[in-house]
Amino acid sequence: MAKHLLYLVLDGVADSLKDPITTLEKAHKPGLDTIARNGVCGLMYPIAKDVAPESDAAVLSILGYDPHKYYTGRGPLEALGAGLEFREGYEVAFRANFATVEPRTLKLIDRRVGRSLATEEAHELAKTIDNMELGKYGGYARVKATIGHRAVVIIGSREHRLSANVGNSDPAYIRKGLISIAVKTYEPVLKEIEPLDNTVEARITAELANIFSKKVVEILDKHPINKARRERGLLPANAILLRDAGDRLPKADPLTKKYGLSFALVAEMPVELGIGRALGAYVEEVPPPTGDPGKDYRVRLDVTLKLLRKYNIVYVHLKGPDEPGHDGDFELKKRRIEDIDKYFVKPFLEEMPSDTAILVTADHATPPSLKAHSGDPVPVALWYPGVKADNVDTFTEKACMKGRLGVFEHGWQLLPRIIDLIFK
Predict the structure, then answer these.
(1) What does the pLDDT look like over 4-23, one tens digit per residue?
(2) Which among 93, 310, 366, 417 has most CB atoms closer than 10 A?
(3) Contact of 24 with 31, CB cutoff 8 Å
(4) How do residues 183-235 score in pLDDT, each as one tens digit?
(5) Longest CA–CA separation in the chain, Å
(6) Is-contact 140 134, C-beta < 8 A?
(7) Which residues neighbour 198 within 8 Å (Cβ) at sequence distance 6 or greater?
(8) What is the dihedral of CA 79, 234, 318, 338, to 10 degrees?
(9) Which is nearest to 349 in space by CA: 33, 41, 3?
(10) Rounded CA gap, 245 and 76, in Å?
(11) C-alpha span between 345 and 399 (Å, rounded)
(12) 3-state SS of the chain?
C-alpha cells in the first residue's frame, strides 16, 4: 500500500475518440507510457457523457465533488484564487478577459488580445480601472489582473443587494444555470449583460456591469500601454469581457475531512488555486511559465517532491496542452505533452519516494480538431506499489479504454475509488 499519492492532472491533454489520430498517440512520452504499462488504466467522463465541461466544474468533479450539488459559479473561485475576498450578497465576482474592440461600435476584434498581452501590461491596465466608481446605486468595481489576458472583476454596491443571476458580456459563451456554454457561432460584439430573472438584484447587477464595461473602453483605449502596443503593431487591450458571475463560494466538506487524508494542491491558474482554497487544501502557487519548459517543470517538480514528504495527496495541475488545443495547433499540443513527459514525469519517476503512487488523468479533452472542450472521456492511469498491471502499454485514449479500471461515468467517482485501492 502507498502512503502518498501524486494526483497529476494534465489540462486538456485528451483529444476526441472520433479523431483519426490524437496528440497523445502521436507524442513521444516514455514516462507516461511507463505508468500506463506498469499500472492499471481506464477512461473517465469528467462530469458526464457528452458534457463538455469548463475547467472549474471539471476540477471540482475530479476532486470528488458532484458539481451539480456544489458548484456556485467560476467568478468566486477565480476571485479566491487571485487573493480577493468579496462580500456575499453585496458583491458579484466575474471571470474576465482583456479583449480588443473597435471603441466606437464595440465590435469585438479579438477575445484574448491575440494572446499577446504580457502579464505585466495587464497588471498596469488593471490598476487604472481598479476601484472604479460606477456613479449609480453606490456601485463600484474592483479589478485584478492574473495571468496574461485573464483577470477577475468584482462588481459591488454599497446600497443594494446584488445577484449573480446575470448573463455574460462575452458573446462566445451563454449562461446555462451556473455554467457558461461555448456557442459555435456568435455576433462579435461586446454584449450588454442581461438580468436572467425579474429581481431588482439581478437588474441592478446587470446595469452596474454594463456601466463598468463602457467606462473600461473609454479609459483603456487611450492608455499609454495601448498606445505603445499599437505602435508595435499589436492589438490594444481596450475592453474587458465578463462571464461566469457568482455571488458565493461552494459550501462543502474540506478535502481532508472528506477523505481522512492530508491534501495539498499545486497550480498556477487562479481557478485551480481558488478551488484548492475553497476545499481547504494547502495551496502552493507556482509562477506562470517563462517559455523555458525545463526550468518551469523543474520548479513544479521540486515543489511536488517537497509536498509529498508532508501530505498524503498532492494534486498537481499542469496547464500546457490546453491552449494549443483551443488554438487548433496539433503540433504545439504534441510538443507540450512531450515537454511535460521529459521534464516532469520522467524525472518524477526517477526521484519519487518508494511509498508513493501516481495517478494521471485530465480535467477535460481539448481536441485541436474542435478548438474547444469536448464531451469525450479522458484517459486514466494509476501506478502504486504492488499493483498487478493490466494489458495497456501506452497512455492514450483508445488504449486506456481497455484497462482494468473500466469507465468512470462521472469524474467524482474517480478519487474515492483510487483512495480505496491504494490507501485501504
Answers:
(1) 999 999 999 999 999 999 99
(2) 93
(3) no
(4) 778 999 999 999 999 999 999 999 999 999 999 999 999 999 999 999 999 99
(5) 66
(6) yes
(7) none
(8) 170
(9) 33
(10) 8
(11) 19
(12) CCCEEEEEEECCEECCCCCCCCHHHHCCCHHHHHHHHHCEEEEECCCCCCCCCCHHHHHHHHCCCCHHHHCCCHHHHHHHHCCCCCCECCEEEEEEEEEEEECCCCEEEECCHHHCCCHHHHHHHHHHHCCEECCCCCEEEEEEECCCCEEEEEEEECCCCCCCCECCCCCCEEEECCEEEECCCCCCECCCCCECCCCHHHHHHHHHHHHHHHHHHHHHCCCHHHHHHHHCCCCCCCEEEEEEEECCCCCCCCHHHHHCCCEEEEECCHHHHHHHHHCCCEEEECCCCCCCHHHHHHHHHHHHHHHHCCCCEEEEEECCCHHHHHCCCHHHHHHHHHHHHHHHHHHHHHHCCCCEEEEEECCCECCCCCCCCECCCEEEEEECCCCCCCCCCCCCHHHHCCCCCEEECCHHHHHHHHHHHHHC
Both 159 and 207 in one domain: the answer is: yes
Q: How many residues does the chain have?
A: 424
d(CA 412, CA 410): 6
Q: How confident is the model at residue 181 (pLDDT cuts 50, 70, 90)?
A: confident
Together in a domain, 284 and 398 = yes
Q: Which domain holds residue 326?
A: 4-71+252-423
Give the C-alpha separation, 146 to 282, whole Å.
Answer: 20
Nearest to 197 by CA among 173, 155, 167, 158: 167
128 neighbors 122 (Cβ within 8 angstroms): no
Average pLDDT over residues 173-189: 84
82 and 98 in one domain? yes
Pull the grid cell for residue 46. 469528467
Our count of domains for the chain comes to: 2
User: Residue 197: what pLDDT?
Assistant: 96
**Is the same domain home to 225 and 123?**
yes
For residue 231, the tally of other CB atoms under 10 A from its CB is 8
* Sheet with strand 282-285: strands edge to edge: 282-285, 263-267, 313-318, 4-10, 356-361, 378-383, 40-44, 406-408
- Residue 91 grid cell: 458583491
pTM equals 0.90
Q: Which residues pair with 312 in a beta bridge?
A: none
The residue whose grid cell reads 483551443 is 326
Burial of 172: CB neighbours in 10 Å, binned 0-12, 13-18, 19+: buried
Last residue of a domain, one of 219, 246, 273: 246
